[in-house]
Amino acid sequence: MVNRRYLYSSTIDLREQVYDFDKQNVITKDNIQMQINALLYFQIVDPFKAVYEIDNLPNAIEKLTQTTLRNIIGEMELDQTLTSRDTINTKLRSVLDDATNKWGIKVNRVELQDIIPPSSVLQAMEKQMQAERNKRATILTSEGEKQAVILQSEGEKTSTINRAEAAKQQAILFAEGEAQARIRKAEAELLPFKRLQKRWVLAPILPTICSHRNTLP
User: Fold this and answer.
1) Under 8 Å between Cβ of 36 and 116
2) In the chain, how many domains are there?
3) For the domain that residue 80 is a member of, what is the CATH number?
4) pLDDT (tens digit, 9 = 90+) per residue, 80-112?
């Protein structure tokens, strides 16, 4: 291993090693050319196969990784490529681990470092994101204004109901007051008649009492 590049050597290192790939030109399913570089973590588990089953193991690993990466990216569109690093890593590791097994190699993991679309695509993506941000801002503003109108309408409705309820209660209280006033007035007007009626009831009794007293010895 020199400067993170795996190089052919007369000795075999059985420790886990890292292969740092240079940027590779790949083309997506929707014909967008971009650059990708990756790290490959692998380990020689069978030194005999690594020596006798493949000539120039470092070059074989590099070429296999390049072709596999191009095939995987070629099946995906740009948007999917940018949001599916884990999926790409898993597919790449699975294919490489299966292909290098006969060489005595165990691929532990693969990590994409950079996915670099063309500058024109980056500019278009930036414009799209800016348009989306503006759209969300417009929607939020519109929703805010809508809620403000609704709240104002509900406030006016509640205020109208409260005023109507207050007027109703006032009318009820006024009517009850009027009724009580009429009752009291009627009672006051009947009072002299009640007194006169009382006198009429007592009138036949008084002469009888007086006559009874005159007959006493």
Assistant:
1) yes
2) 1
3) 3.30.479.30
4) 888 888 888 888 889 988 988 899 999 898 888
